[in-house]
Design goal:
Length: about 400
């Protein structure tokens, strides 16, 4: 008794491993977790206090479904200051996290049968959201030997008359790679030539290292901006994952109105208390965010060095986000403690059972020769986990 729409949407294949890890923790096993897709830092105090104050001051009623005007004005100011993008409050919709923003775009912007270009490795929800919208995900493999850059001949070969949208996620989850200005320019050119909607997920914008600067593809030209929906939020930058505040900005008012309409009939406004806290977040000193990024950078360098020191693993250096994505292709087929490494699921299971370390199998991101490790955890945990992984592979 379920809709055709949901028949194609599969539960996460990593759920079994996740459930096993959780069970081990509740059984008292001393597990080192590298699975977290969220900062381990607490939400900064000024933001938490703003949330508390919102409750005591009874800011607990509905707001406009697309978000509070004050918050939208601050988001518009942020987009201008950080990204050089001119939007009015009316071009912005605040949703329950960037995931919800993306869901609104897929549902309001795509028809059944439309093709959506998704670069692989990808963040799993793009794939399943395309399925939920009854659109067709079209996977385009990134070239790992060139730091996961785009092979534009391959990309061009995947564009058909049915292609409606392309997803850009820079910095990327899971690879941490940051697209160059040149690549963004080429994507934009293809989008213009083929009349594509660009969905630009910029949620890891602040998590940048090695002097990299974030470029929003929408800032390349007014023509590109007019066909782009920028997606961003506070989850990763301000350690606010549980508050659920994300947003979109788009010039296309027909699409903005359709998304607003969808949101007004589904979730309505994101929690009022979270919106008040988000107003405070937008006013927070950028140094607070930078301090978290600096700590992530310290860990990034360390985890990368330790992963690369393990024989059989290779790892592209990530310039953004808070993940490393080691490649274990050379170890496939190897027997360890009586078990054979067949793919990312078996490896993740072996690491969990034998080494007591939780990683996310790459198959969750469309690659069975990788696993993802988040360094949103302490240096001490990084060392403890890597000691175990090293010992396991020995
Ligand atoms: C690439 C990417 N986009 C969007 C999101 C969603 O973020 P939010 O917590 O704001 O819904 C995530 C969260 O993991 C992500 O990794």
């Amino acid at each position: 008794m379920i809709s055709d729409r949901m028949k194609k949407v599969v539960p996460s294949i990593t759920l079994a491993i996740d459930a096993k890890a959780k069970q081990m923790i509740s059984d008292g096993v001393d597990l080192v977790g590298f699975g977290a897709g969220e900062p381990d830092f607490n939400t900064p105090d000024n933001i938490k206090l703003a949330g508390i104050k919102a409750i005591t001051e009874n800011k607990t009623r509905y707001t406009p479904s697309s978000g509070m005007p004050d918050l939208k004005n601050l988001i518009a100011a942020k987009l201008k200051k950080d990204n050089g993008l001119d939007y009015k409050a009316g071009n912005i919709i605040v949703s329950c996290g960037a995931k919800h923003s993306l869901f609104n775009i897929f549902m309001a912007g795509l028809n059944p049968g439309d093709e959506v270009i998704i670069f692989t490795p990808y963040w799993v929800s793009y794939y399943e959201m395309a399925n939920m919208a009854q659109a067709t995900p079209v996977l385009v493999a990134l070239d790992e030997s060139k730091n996961f850059e785009i092979d534009f001949d391959l990309l061009k070969s995947k564009i058909t008359i049915k292609t409606k949208a392309i997803i850009v996620n820079s910095p990327s989850n899971p690879t941490g790679c940051v697209l160059s200005a040149e690549s963004l320019g080429k994507i934009a050119e293809l989008a213009l030539q083929n009349n594509l909607l660009i969905i630009s997920d910029e949620i890891y914008e602040k998590n940048l290292y090695n002097g990299k600067k974030h470029i929003s593809i929408a800032s390349l030209s007014p023509e590109v901006k007019s066909r782009t929906v920028v997606v961003n939020g506070l989850s990763k930058s301000h350690a606010m994952t549980g508050w659920r505040i994300g947003y979109i900005a788009a010039d296309d008012m027909e699409l903005v109105r359709a998304m607003d309409n969808m949101q007004s009939h589904s979730t309505s406004n994101p929690a009022t208390i979270s919106q008040v806290a988000a107003i405070e977040a937008c006013k927070t000193n950028p140094a607070v965010v930078q301090a978290m990024v600096s700590e992530f950078d310290r860990r990034r360098k360390h985890i990368l060095e330790r992963v690369r020191a393990i024989q059989g693993l290779t790892c592209v250096e990530p310039d953004g986000a808070f993940y490393v994505f080691p490649n274990f292709k050379k170890l496939i087929g190897r027997q360890i403690r009586g078990k054979k490494i067949e793919g990312s699921l078996t490896l993740a299971d072996m690491l969990l059972t034998e080494a007591k370390v939780a990683v996310v199998p790459g198959i969750a991101f469309g690659s069975d020769i990788h696993f993802r490790m988040s360094y949103a955890t302490s240096m001490e945990m990084i060392d403890r986990g890597l000691d175990r992984i090293e010992e396991f592979f020995k």
